[in-house]
Structures are given as C-alpha cells and as structure tokens.
Amino acid sequence: MGQTLSEPVTAKESACCRDNNYRVGSSCMQGWRVNMEDCHVHILSLPDDPGTAFFAVYDGHGGAKVAQYAAKHLHEYITRRAEYKAGNVVEAMQQGFLELDRTMQYDALLRDEQAGTTVISLLIKDSVLYSANAGDSRAVASVGGKAVPLSRDHKPSLRAERDRIEAAGGWVELNRVNGNLALSRALGDFVFKRNERKTAEEQIVTAYPEVQRHNVTTDWEFVIVACDGIWDVMSNEEVVAFVRSRLAQEAKNGTEDQGSMVDPEDVCEELMSHCLAPDARMGTGCDNMTVVLVCFLHGQPYSHLIARCRQPPSVDT
Which pTM value belongs to this model? Predict the structure, then answer.
C-alpha cells in the first residue's frame, strides 16, 4: 500500500453531462493517499466520430503524468486509426492503446517517468458497447437490475498473466510483478517493457487491452466505471445494488421545478464515501477513488430510469 495521510482528503470533484442518450455523473476523491493520481473522462460525442460516446477511468500509480496524458489523448489514438475507420473497433482499441504507449515511451517528458496507469474505457457506437481494459480498474453494467461485468481484472496471479510475465523474464512474488506492481497490464511502467526479443503484447507488463463487445438493449440501466479503490471494498453486485437503491431515493433538496430525482454525480459521491476507510490501517478503502456513472436513457426522460430502479431486479425465465 502507498503512503497515507494522517487524515483523509474527503473533498470531492464532481461533474455531470447529459444528452438524449445518457445522463452521466462523475466524482473523484484523494482519500488517504498523499497525492491524487486518478483521471477520468466522459465524452458524449467524440469530435472525430459524432454520436459515439467515450468514458474512461485512469488509475495512475507512481505519479499522475501518464494517467493525465492518456486521459487527454487515448480516445484520439483510437478513432484516428485505420482499423476504426474501416469499422473494426475492437482492433482499433487494441492498437490505439499500444500506439499511445509507444508514443509516451519515446516522449522526452514521459519516458523516464517511473509511473503508469490502468485504463478501463468504454466506447459506445451504434448501440454496441466496447469495453477495453488494461489493469484492475473495472466496468460493471446493471442490466435489468443485475450486475453484468464488462471487464476482467488483470492481476499477476492469473495463470495467463503469470505465464507472459515469466516468459518475458519477470516473476511474480506476493501476487506482484517482480514483487512490486499489483497489476499486470498498464500504460507506462516502461521499466517492465524492455525485453527487445518480445513484442509489445508480450512484455512483462503490457498495455495491450482486453476488449469485450456487448449489445446495449433497452434493459440496460447504467454502467459504473471505477478504479480499484471501489472494487477492493465492494463486489460488483453490491455496487449495482447500492447505485440502484440511491437512484431510487428522492433527492433531499428537490424542488417542484427541479424534481426530486437524485443526480448520478451525487450517487458517485455517496459510493466513494461509503467505501472510504475510517482508519488508514485498514488497507482497503484507503486508495484514491474515481467513479463515472453512465445512465442509459434510451431516448426517454431520466424519470423513466428512476422508476425502473424502484422496481426489483428482473427475473430470468
């Protein structure tokens, strides 16, 4: 665990945006950590592909510079690739991650940084959600009230990850890469990417993401995108239940004009406060925390989603 403060920084930076398809809230909090190293983005319509949305959380470690650079540029690297223009979004995301990583590796300001960042990114185009993940941040959807994982955590203890690490000359000790890094895929961390006999995909720590493809149907309620500061404390099912229950509540300060619905960013703040450890000695709940909550409107008013969250989860037939 990284260095901690004597008291947590609980001030939260929150934001929101919306259109006919989404109502999005986000929030981040430094917590017990000495520095804030997370970044996140929510873009309802990409400049290079209007009508396509992009959401991502970048959980930095060893410093914030790699996370900041990636948050500013990753979506550009994806949408400008030839694969993307040809309609192959999966390969565009895979190669966009690697191209961005190469660019940073030769950047005079970033190549010597002893820092890296996980990435969990969602690109939603033509009712298809593409989830690209490198590391142990995570995205989970609520579909009919049930938790559906959209990514898989990349930990050194996983057999396939361990095999790659060892084949590239590394080792796993105490479930950490070379006894140091608690995750096995990330942007940056260039000290683990120096095996000239291996491709970028085969390095001890690789930036190559795992991409999942999901069709977004009308029973999709929302997606939570968050760093491991949340998932270390709560399970997928617990987070989905927490978010649904908070969205179903009436806002304390609602007025007749504003309505009495809870905003997504308020739910993000509550979730982080719920996960924050009361004591730094607890270990879990002491990390930086970032949450992006993407609510699907499906062309309907936000109140329709709230009404759905007030209903019990759907039952499989």
Answer: 0.95
